[in-house]
Write a structure and sequence with these properties.
The complex is a heterodimer of chains A (about 325) and B (about 280). By secondary structure, chain A is mainly α. Chain A contains 14 helices and no strands. In chain A, about 75% of the residues lie in helices and about 0% in strands. The chains are: A mainly alpha (about 325), B mainly alpha (about 280).
């Protein structure tokens, strides 16, 4: 009995406070009134974006965590909380463990491959003055070409009998392989395509990093007797590229974790689970097998990995700004 | 760097070109092979020769088949429509919000900006299951709306426009207010036109991302008549069971072509836009 009364009372006080607020505002200084009007305008301008951010980002991300903690299935009317049961199921599942390990292996091939080749090509392009834009364009092309279509082109190159790669190997007397159907080669081949796609991205980030190295440092290195290109590379260029390199490593790792198109088009995760990656597992479990709770748990694991990497990246960027 | 580069000796200059031409050739190989197969007749594709140019030109047949047997013009039209609508809605939603964040003082501004930053951090694929359920509840799955609605607000768009609007002097805003412009017309008549470089970078980022996206369309639509290019070309591939390489390669070439041409025409903008302004 006392609680509704209290609520009524507090509602009354709040209404009174509201009245007071309004009357205060009317009698308030023009500056205060302008501030109030500015706030109202701001929320009106931002209102639609705020609503959509909540509806399309914040509610869904809470939703996926909630679904992961329940036994809810798509289409069913009731659910109950099951704690971490979905996560236990995910982590004891051979398929998911294979997918997680594959993803880590994929990232461990793609990141060094992309960063080293991207850096080497950026250094080569910067080391001369002719044809810079031309070389940059060629190497950047795969990054913006539709990967689904390019995966189909790769499939033709990798075709076991009529593909250019096996033909070339055969002509040189080397052993050929059924690249996408062999469990030993499927994942490495996808990783090579990943490197092919992303190295142009790493390259443009390194090119920007190279441009930001002050000329004075090279002059000083010259005075110190570092007149060979290799000396300057070792004493000035590479140390100065440190922060950029860390940034590139994380950004490329994030992209590698999100690899999906090539798996879907080329291998469907096979043979067996040999080339299954996290995002493909997430897609298949959620939308093909309709295992809602399982799929949501995979999504949460994926989210944790990506958020961790992004936070590390933010720290690095902050540090870099701090240094300058 | 200029001094460093000018001191490169002749032989190493030639070496630079040799290495870059070689890596460039490796990078371009899938593109070249795709085009080569797209103009070869089935006989030559299966005879497997090294030559780029076919002895019997079959391009008309292959491209004709790609355009008629697969509803490729329809896929491309869908892609264009979806990308255009997403971009227009994103700008309509994000620019006013970015203006409020950049130029107005209000309670909750830091909170709102924090929301934008968290939104930037979330990978979209994680949201796909709840968004699929939302689309189902709204009854819009398997329509154009399903392809568009998850992207109508872009945290990156808000962030980018806010950063650019902040560089525009406050005096510009004050002068516009004195001229009697409403806040909304300040956004559309003053701020957005002045932020043309940010708008261009964001447009490229958005259009390239959504033209190339496979993940969400795969979930959102089933009808072939609604498919954007990546999903459509995948459907075409499974229909042909991978046996009719010529038309499939022709279709792939046509899907990749618009962005490649746009990229070659406006390289600098593309590099800046796609890398999310990380490169200036």
């Amino acid at each position: 009995m006392s609680r509704p009364a209290a609520t009524m009372e507090s509602a009354g006080t709040m209404a009174q406070a509201g009245d007071r607020g309004a009357s205060q505002l009317l009698s308030a200084s023009p500056a205060k009134r302008r501030a109030f009007a500015e706030g109202a305008t701001a929320w009106m301008l931002a209102g639609l974006a705020v609503f959509l951010l909540l509806a399309l980002f914040f509610v869904p991300v809470l939703g996926v965590v909630l679904i992961a903690l329940t036994d809810w299935q798509f289409g069913s009317a009731s659910f109950s909380f099951v704690g971490l049961a979905n996560f236990r199921e995910v982590f004891t599942d051979q398929g998911f463990r294979a997918s997680l390990l594959n993803t880590i292996l994929y990232v461990l091939i793609v990141v060094p491959g992309t960063v080293v080749s991207g850096l080497a090509i950026a250094l080569l392009i910067e080391s001369g003055r002719s044809c810079r834009a031309f070389y940059r364009a060629i190497h950047f092309l795969p990054f913006m070409a539709t990967l689904t279509a390019m995966a189909i082109a790769w499939e033709a190159l990798l075709h076991p009998t009529i593909g250019l790669i096996n033909q070339t190997l055969a002509a040189m007397g080397l052993p050929t392989a059924n690249w996408l159907r062999d469990e030993n080669t499927a994942l490495p081949v996808l990783a090579v395509i990943g490197i092919w796609q992303n190295l142009g991205y790493a390259m443009v980030l390194f090119l920007a990093g190279l441009k930001s190295i002050p000329q004075d440092l090279y002059d000083a290195a010259n005075v110190d007797g570092a007149d060979m290109w290799l000396d300057r590379l070792r004493t000035v260029t590479l140390p100065m590229l440190g922060p950029v390199t860390m940034f590139v490593v994380i950004v490329v790792a994030l992209r590698a974790f999100e690899a999906f198109d090539t798996v879907k088009v080329l291998t469907q995760g096979g043979p067996g689970h040999a080339s299954e990656l996290l995002l493909y597992t997430l897609y298949r479990e959620s939308f093909e097998y309709l295992r809602t709770g399982y799929g949501a748990a995979v999504a949460v694991v994926f989210l944790l990995i990506v958020v961790t990497l992004t936070l590390v990246q933010t720290r690095i960027v902050d540090k870099k700004v701090h240094y300058q | 760097m200029s001094q460093a580069s000018s001191s490169l000796s002749m032989p190493s200059g030639i070496l630079r070109h040799a290495v870059l031409l070689l890596t460039g050739a490796v990078i371009l190989l899938p593109f070249v092979w795709m085009i080569s197969l797209s103009i070869k007749p089935p006989g030559e594709i299966f005879r497997a020769s090294f030559s780029f140019w076919p002895t019997h030109f079959y391009g008309i047949e292959n491209y004709g088949k790609a355009l008629t047997e697969a509803p490729l013009p329809r896929y491309m039209g869908n892609g264009l429509l979806v990308c255009a609508l997403i971009l227009i809605l994103q700008v309509l939603v994000c620019a006013p919000c970015a203006y409020a964040l950049a130029k107005l003082r209000f309670a909750g501004r830091d909170l709102l900006f924090g929301m934008v930053l968290i939104g930037l951090l979330l990978p979209h694929q994680v949201l796909s299951l709840p968004l699929f359920i939302l689309g189902y509840q709204l009854g819009i799955l398997n329509t154009y709306a399903a392809l568009i609605f998850p992207y109508v607000v872009s945290p990156f768009g808000i962030f980018l426009f806010r950063q650019f609007f902040k560089t525009i002097p406050d005096d510009v805003v004050h002068a516009a207010r004195l001229d009697g412009l409403s806040e909304l017309s300040i956004v559309w008549k003053i701020m957005v036109p002045m932020a043309a470089p940010a708008l261009a970078a964001f447009s490229i980022f958005s259009v390239v991302g959504h033209w190339n996206d496979l993940f969400w369309p795969l979930i959102a639509v089933r009808d072939e008549s609604l498919m954007p290019p990546p999903l459509g070309i995948m459907a075409f591939k499974s229909e042909e069971a991978g046996n009719d390489y010529g038309p499939l390669m022709a279709a792939s070439t046509l899907v990749v072509l618009p962005l490649v041409i746009a990229f070659l025409a406006a390289q600098k903008w593309f590099v800046e836009g796609i890398t999310g302004g990380a490169v200036k």
